[in-house]
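Lab notes, practical 5.
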Amino acid sequence: QVELVESGGGLVQAGDSLRLSCAASGRTLSTYVMGWFRQAPGKEREFVASIVWSGGITYYADLVKGRFTISRDNAKNTVYLQMNSLKPEDTAVYYCAARRAYSNTYDYWGQGTQVTVSS
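Output from the prediction step:
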């Protein structure tokens, strides 16, 4: 069992930056992939970014590539999403998730944190 707790959301203006954190507990994450997803009102949840815990390989959705950076801190068992040059269309509830490296399914999800970007 992996427990995930997100934090760092808030209300910012377009062009601002925000850093989300996802604290993980319950298991060693060396065999996991950590992901960030988001869901805007009336839309389906979409992939934002992911990082392979062991090795640090990262993947990004085209919409955020060049603006968002995912990283992890091994000592703190925490994953971060640094979001720069935020746009109103980035407004959504952001979720942290975890899946085993050999699986395509994210089995563990956090409760989500709201990010609102005003124009």
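Observations recorded by the TA: The longest strand covers residues 92-100. DSSP finds no helices and eleven strands in the chain.
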